Amino acid sequence: MMLFSRVRGLPVLTPGDAGRVGVVRTLTVEGAPWRVTHVVLARGRLRRNALVAWDALRAAGPGTLVVRGSGIRSGGGPHEAPDHHELVGSGVLTECGEERGTVLDAAFDPVTGRIEAVLTTAGEVPPGRLLGLGDHALVIRADRAPRGVREV
Q1: Torsion of CA 104, 82, 114, 118, to 10 degrees
Q2: Contact, 133 vs 31, CB < 8 A?
Q3: What pLDDT, on the 0 to 100 scale, is given for residue 79?
Q4: How far is it, in rounded angstroms, from Cα 139 to Cα 129?
Q5: DSSP single-letter state for residue 70
Q6: CA angle, 33 as apex, 93 and 102 as ends, to 5°?
Q7: Are 24 and 7 in contact (CB under 8 A)?
Q8: Residue partners of 80: CB distance under 8 A and separation at least 6
Q9: Is 114 helix (H, G, I), strand (E, B) or coil?
Q10: What angle do CA 50, 53, 56 make, to 5 degrees?
Q11: Pairing mode, if any, of strands 72-74 and 50-53?
């Protein structure tokens, strides 16, 4: 498993002599099935961000990501990636609107990109409880009925 916090800032390389193409700025997550779909690369102050589909990676290791040269696209096109909502740092809400802390990190499978767990200030949330990710919060299934509501 890899953690989002360990991937941010990693260099992204292409095989052969092409060398470093940027560093990981963030990861894009798609819900149902919950998985990493894209890597957003920072390419320098004067260059636009670039996107790499997770499936275009040849290797994801503890110190670097290696991408096929054809897998890199400059940011800004209309069909580049799904809407990006930042997972790490998001608030956590149940479907009933109860606050459940803040997302600290997420663990994922480096081969498939599948989210294995979301680590929050209130504890670990398994992928089966994830419902949606928006601009301000990750929405999860409540693990028990809200206060004052009787389970049947």
Answers
A1: 20
A2: yes
A3: 45
A4: 9
A5: G
A6: 25
A7: yes
A8: 38, 51, 73
A9: strand
A10: 110
A11: antiparallel
Q: Which residue has the tokens 């998985």?
A: 35
Distance CA 11, CA 23 (A): 4
60 by Cβ neighbours in 10 Å (0-12 / 13-18 / 19+) ranks as buried
What is the structure's pLDDT at 91? Answer: 96
Question: Which of 1, 24, 28, 26 has its CA nearest to residue 13?
Answer: 24
Q: Looking at residue 21, what is its pLDDT? A: 83
Q: Which residue has the tokens 């929050």?
A: 120
Q: Give the up-direction half-sphere exposure of residue 24: CA atoms within 13 A in the CB hemisphere.
A: 28
Digit-by-digit pLDDT tens for the chain (152 residues) are 899 999 999 998 887 655 778 899 999 998 888 999 999 888 877 677 888 888 888 877 778 888 876 566 665 444 455 677 889 999 999 999 999 999 999 999 988 999 999 999 999 999 999 999 988 899 999 976 555 555 44
